[in-house]
């Protein structure tokens, strides 16, 4: 009996010395630490959902340090991190920034050159809630010359192409690319890649940058063909899913 009491005493003293995790310990972190943690979350849906937890997390998850916003209705240009046009947001963005484009209405996008790594994401639940419109006379809505990602956005082009890929790794996920139907439809293509169009430019340095286009869960409508390549990249690994009203594409444009 004495040994049993001693064993119970030893067990209780040992268990009491084990620290019990505090379920609210994350709230004891300062704002800078929490914001650094949030920066590792994917903007949509993880960081977006994080902003719904509480007022403090909403402030930190939507902080301009984590992403910029494009909102056509913005009147006060002094609000940090909020811009009336995509072109202005791109020019103010730092490499690695995420730009959240507000849903509702159409955003004008004509020959916007992106020369730094950026992520452009539509702010709606569906891609057709955030529309970029490229008017006739423009070569493209967006022109990419760095590693970039476009997600949850609809891009419409009257004549020309929706997205022009010059160099870098371009990722297109969950988008809608539409070329308007007209008598000159054969001149337009939703995606055009000119990466390493000159064979002499294709050096070992260029190869190390890994120029490519990766398309997933994307509707492509209109135009002469889904993608046109005039450089050293070729269409590969094509998958298509036919839905009742739409056709969704998965494919890569890469070197063999």
How many DSSP H or I helices?
6
The percent range for helix content is: 10-25%
Strand content: 25-35%
Q: Per the principal axes of the C-alpha atoms, what is the gross shape?
A: globular
* Low-pLDDT segments: 14-18, 198-208
N- to C-terminal distance: 78 Å
Computed Rg: 24 Å
Order of helices and strands: HHHHEEHEEEEEEEEEEEEHEEEE
Topology of helices and strands:
Elements: H1 2-17, H2 31-38, H3 43-50, H4 55-61, E1 67-70, E2 82-83, H5 86-92, E3 98-101, E4 106-108, E5 112-114, E6 118-122, E7 131-134, E8 140-144, E9 148-151, E10 154-157, E11 161-165, E12 169-173, E13 176-179, E14 189-193, H6 204-209, E15 212-221, E16 227-229, E17 234-242, E18 247-254
Polypeptide structure, described:
- The protein is 20% helix and 34% strand.
- It is built from six helices and 18 strands.
- The chain has helices spanning 2-17, 31-38, 43-50, 55-61, 86-92, 204-209; strands at residues 67-70, 82-83, 98-101, 106-108, 112-114, 118-122, 131-134, 140-144, 148-151, 154-157, 161-165, 169-173, 176-179, 189-193, 212-221, 227-229, 234-242, 247-254.
- The strands form two sheets. Strands 1, 2, 3, 4, 6, 7, 9, 10, 12, 13, 15, 17 and 18 form a 13-stranded mixed β-sheet that branches. Strands 5-8-11-14-16 form a five-stranded parallel β-sheet, with helices on one face.
- The longest helix is centred in the N-terminal third of the chain and has 16 residues, at 2-17.
- Mean pLDDT is 82; it is low at 14-18 and 198-208.
């Amino acid at each position: 009996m004495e040994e049993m009491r001693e064993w119970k005493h030893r067990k209780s003293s040992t268990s009491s010395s084990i620290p019990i995790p505090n379920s609210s310990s994350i709230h004891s972190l300062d704002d800078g630490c929490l914001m650094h943690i949030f920066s590792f979350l994917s903007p949509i849906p993880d960081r977006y959902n994080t902003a719904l937890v509480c007022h403090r997390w909403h402030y930190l998850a939507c902080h301009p340090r984590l992403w910029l916003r494009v909102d056509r209705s913005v009147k006060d240009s002094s609000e940090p991190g909020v811009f009336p046009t995509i072109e202005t947001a791109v020019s103010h963005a730092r490499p690695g920034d995420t730009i959240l484009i507000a849903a509702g209405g159409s955003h004008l996008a004509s020959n916007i050159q992106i020369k730094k790594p950026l992520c452009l994401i539509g702010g709606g639940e569906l891609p057709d809630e955030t529309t970029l419109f490229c008017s006739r006379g423009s070569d493209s809505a967006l022109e990419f010359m760095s590693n970039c990602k476009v997600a949850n956005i609809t891009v419409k082009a009257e004549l020309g192409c929706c997205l022009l890929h010059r160099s870098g790794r371009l990722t297109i996920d969950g988008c809608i690319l539409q070329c308007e139907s007209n008598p000159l439809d054969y001149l337009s293509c939703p995606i055009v890649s000119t990466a390493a169009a000159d064979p002499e430019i294709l050096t070992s340095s260029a190869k190390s940058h890994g120029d490519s286009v990766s398309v997933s869960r994307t509707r492509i409508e209109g135009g002469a063909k889904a993608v046109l390549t005039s450089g050293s990249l070729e269409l590969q690994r094509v998958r298509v899913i036919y839905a009742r009203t739409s056709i969704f594409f998965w494919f890569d444009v890469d070197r063999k």
